């Protein structure tokens, strides 16, 4: 295959071949940048959604990829039923259609970081003791 390209290309001197090196280096630098900008954040979002779905429980608020918002009523292996609107209309979706899970209490269930108000209240209680 390379022989065909070499035969089709006009004879080039050594100086012209050196000018192709920056293009190759630029291409090789583009691959890790593409990974850091596109692939890594997408994998992170997928992992967070998987964690949310494993921790979801009845009563949590669900937003589907189609934009339907409702309260989780029933969970099965690959389907969930949510109640939507004021009439509490039940709608069944596949778990793959879930975009976001908002826990019942409105906070993330697995929040490892304390909020600043929690830190301040802990400090205040320590100084009072």
Major sheet, described briefly? 5 strands, antiparallel
Overall pLDDT level: 79
Low-confidence segments: 109-115
Structure annotation, total helices = 4
Please give the alpha-carbon distance between the first and last residues: 80 Å
Q: Tell me the strand percentage band.
A: 15-25%
List SSEs in N-to-C order. Answer: HHHEEEEEH
**Multimerization status:** single chain
Structural class: alpha+beta
Shape: rod-shaped
Mind telling me the C-alpha Rg? 27 Å
- Could you give the count of β-strands? 5
Any overview of this molecule?
This protein folds into 2 domains: about 15-55; about 55-110, SH3 type barrels (Roll), CATH 2.30.30. The protein is about 45% helix and about 20% strand. The protein has helices spanning about 1-10, 15-20, 20-55, 115-129, and strands spanning about 60-65, 70-75, 80-85, 90-95, 100. It has a 5-stranded antiparallel sheet with strand order 4-3-2-1-5.
